[in-house]
Amino acid sequence: MTRPGERGGVLVAGSANLDFVIRAGHVPAPGETVLGRGFDTFPGGKGANQAVACARGGGVATRMLLALGEDAFAAPIEASLRAAGVATTVVRTREQPTGVAFICLSDTAENAITVAPGANSLLRPADLPPFDDTTHLLLQLETPLDSVAAWARAARAAGVAVVLNAAPAQCLPADLLREVDLLIVNEGELARLSGVEGDVAAAIDALAVPDIVVTLGARGCCARIGGQRLLQPAFSVQALDTTGAGDTFCGTLVAELSRRQPFAAALRYACAASALACERLGAQAGVPSRAEVERLLRDGHPATTRDALAAWCGFDPTPGQPLTP
């Protein structure tokens, strides 16, 4: 694997959507109609969100491979990436429209999301650009699985670290997981991949990947890195919109790793960035600047204690201790 610092920057290969967001008192149950009180559109898509987070929140050189239709929905996505400083390789197609997501956002900052992949479904293995000046390849699962696997193999062969955010949740072939250096999942995705419900520590141990990070929403995150378990409580903020918070976490975490930061420090930075992302509407619009993250790191307060987080995960609460299953 390439040592961080031998090359610089992150390549993101993944999805780009235009998000249609309706605000409502609560997310509707099956068969229920809810009257919303506001509507807007925002650039989104897991891949594009993470690329913006790498560039704006992480402050590292970032490139992105994405696919867009030849329609009006593509323009705001490209403008957002450009404004964040993301260099793009765009596959343009008339076969499918630009991907879209329909999001209902509740007053408690919870959301329900339905995605129509559109052009994202046409990204192919051969579309991946060269790995010039790249330390990490960041992938998600909103593009074809065979393309994701091929991109991971290509990165591994080139000595580039492969980071997979295994979202949306689905079962993954073992040959893809063998190419992954760092796996990032939430609790639901962790349970789906491991087959272990209700025990974070046991589920982590059931997955044969070198390193794994589990995001835990308002609690924070935990990780198994080599022979160590790490805990990072979340930062306390007033949440408005959690859409894209996980993507902000992924992008800023990988950016910090590309900067050669210690893993514990990178987790703390990513937790701060994702907390700030919850304070604003829109996945990419909510990504904070590096200065804003550094201010929260200096002045912020944890939302929970390390001991409480350790108990939730089933981890030894002593920081920096070797992994003891």
From TrEMBL:
Reactions mediated catalytically: D-ribose + ATP = D-ribose 5-phosphate + ADP + H(+)
Domain of life: Bacteria
GO-annotated molecular function: ribokinase activity
Activity regulation note: Activated by a monovalent cation that binds near, but not in, the active site. The most likely occupant of the site in vivo is potassium. Ion binding induces a conformational change that may alter substrate affinity.
Catalytic residues of the enzyme: D247
List of residues binding ATP: N186, T215, L216, G217, A218, R219, G220, G246, D247
Oligomeric and partner information: Homodimer.
Family per similarity comment: Belongs to the carbohydrate kinase PfkB family. Ribokinase subfamily.
Protein name per Swiss-Prot or TrEMBL: Ribokinase
Protein source organism: Luteimonas notoginsengisoli
Gene: rbsK
